[in-house]
Amino acid sequence: MASRRTTPMTDLALVAVFAGVIAAFTLTPAIPVGPLGVPITLQTLAVAMTAMILGPWRGFAATALYVVVGLAGLPVLAGGASGIGALARPSAGYLLAFPLSALLIGFLTRWFIARQGRARWAWLFVAGLAGSFVFIHPMGILGMSINGGIPLGKAFLADMVYWPGDLIKNAAAAGVAVAVHRAFPSLMVESAVQRAPEQETVTV
Fold it and tell me: Integer distance in angstroms from the first to the last C-alpha of the chain?
């Protein structure tokens, strides 16, 4: 079924709402792990879910808005952190990777939804893993190495602690996204301002 394009105002509202959702997920207690104490949080779950539901550009915008607001001083980052000083923490690489991860997850999700009629959960799960292992983990490892002052090899081993949790969180995000798209198929369709002329509709 072809879905109508959303309006720019709707897109802005969704971006703001989902940036708030990502911030809300940081209210859950963080679990410090590894030699540098980079915590396990639900941020990656929220980022993946946002991208899978909103698509690439709105997912990117919502995630970037969350990061910018946190760096601007609002205590919405993991553990209630805020301010530009967060960029000097060992977790900075993970934080900066969120918008890029959302962009990739959103593109893959939109592509899969348009072309895969079955096993949608599995394809969205793959999209989430792609965002994690193409951007979040590599940039997180680099950030731990630079800001934590440890070799890349040690940072890589420290990062492996987060892999099982990422599998669970991406599986959960895919499940939520499949349910949301089943109920509201037009959510994946972005406004004409954000889409190329040949991509005016998405068939779901």
Answer: 6
Rounding to the nearest 10 degrees, give the CA dihedral for residues 86, 87, 88, 91.
Answer: 80
Torsion, Cα of 190, 44, 70, 94 (10° steps): -110
What distance in Å separates the CA atoms of residue 15 and residue 9, rounded to the nearest whole number? Answer: 10
What's the pLDDT at 4? 55
pLDDT at 196: 45
Distances (CA, A) of 157 to 138, 152, 161, 162, 168: 12, 9, 7, 10, 19
Which pTM value belongs to this model?
0.88
Domain ranges across the chain: 8-196
d(CA 33, CA 162): 9
What phi, psi does 116 have (nearest 5°)?
A: -110, 110
Q: Is 78 left (phi over 0), alpha (psi -120 to 50) or beta?
A: beta
Has domain 8-196 been given CATH number 1.10.1760.20? yes
- Tokens representing 51 are 């991208």
Q: Given this model, what pLDDT does residue 96 score? A: 97
Residue type, 71: L
Block residue for tokens 């068939």: 203
